[in-house]
User: Fold this.
Amino acid sequence: MLELEKMDLHIDSLMELIKKYQSEISSGRVLPEASRSEMERIIFEEMPTAGKAPEAVIGEFAEKIIPNSTKVGSARFLSWIITSPSQAGILGEMANIGLSQAPFLFKAGPAATVIEDMAIGWISSLFDFPKESGGILVSGGSVSTLTALGAAREAMFPGITENGMHSIEKPPVLYTSKKAHASIDKAVGALGFGKKMLRKIAVDAEYRIDANELEESILKDIQEGLRPFCIIAQAGTSVAGAVDDIQKLSEIAKKYSLWLHVDGAYGGGAIITAKGRELLRGIQEADSISVDPHKWLFIPPEAGCVLLRNKKHLYNAYRMGQDEYNPDTPVEFVNYGIQSTRMSRAIKIWFAFKIYGINTLSATIEKNMELAKAFYEGLEGVKGLYRLNNPMTSAVCFSFEGGQEENESFLRYIEDKFFVSPAVLGGKHCIRACFSNYRTKVEHVEELLELVRKFKGIY
Assistant:
């Protein structure tokens, strides 16, 4: 009853629309011009009780949905860290949807389970993790951090998953920088630690956590009878793209027997470049890492990854039964994360890695970092403008001397050509351009710089 006649023709029709969209993705506006209310007027309707012909629905998709969607893949999309999904990744997503695998158990997705296990091994090897490492693919950095901290909680306080937070003698404390992503606060609250037990440590001039203040905070909490538990390092903060001194944080974690988690949702992908390996020095000593292939590895979302130096801690935190961890037992992913029924996220990674190879992806990330540096240097000398960060990764923050009012005026001035974001850094309103798009080229950087200069000439 749910089968469609001429399914092959409908797939062809939809694919033609997608091919056209992909071919024109860098032309025209990045953001649709319609307002929220206009879009609701176009799209909202009553719940359908009787169906329509597939051709009609595909026609509505072409008329109403495509024109009112943000062109994340545009060369001029320089906003949030939602990178352009690679075309090989898109092929993988299409293949995945066609297969419809749910690899929570091997039998629910045999090939998908093995591919995910292999992909986790590939990504783990990039960070020089040992053979007993492992992980799971999740929706993104938020769930990755939640999953990692849940495993850390069980590893550091064995039995807490069964016995509850009240079984801990001393209240546990976590530490991260003031520039950490809001998902860390959410995870700490959801896991029952309490957001007040998350210490937000000051940062230095480069927006990296102040290691001296961190250690002072740890010592203070010990003296007050608390239990320092975990350091969460930043590998690519969400605004400035800053990377903490992970090597130093690893030394502090070992000194006080703390778990070290690295939030590399954004910057973790840089590990495949020479500059990135230097920036992320010490990450191989982490107990857990978050990295989003759907960010700087150019995979379509959702594709997040959590890695554990020892995957038994994931198993102990999330196992379905009472069987003890056995490293020789093949992975059933239902025992390694929060979800039961779950989509396969590995097939699109497999497609992209197989088609491009890691060297091509590395060269693309290196190019992104070069473009960010070129844009940063191009802003130098523009009268009435100042730069807020020297980019470590690929984010550049700047502000006009008129502050928020002038910044917002500039965003309106360029909105039909580029999409960059307003942000706040160091307590100051600013504009943030993030170069994490494989289609962006030098000419786009020059075009944006020319718009900055022209704006200053008319403002």
In short: The mean pLDDT is 95.
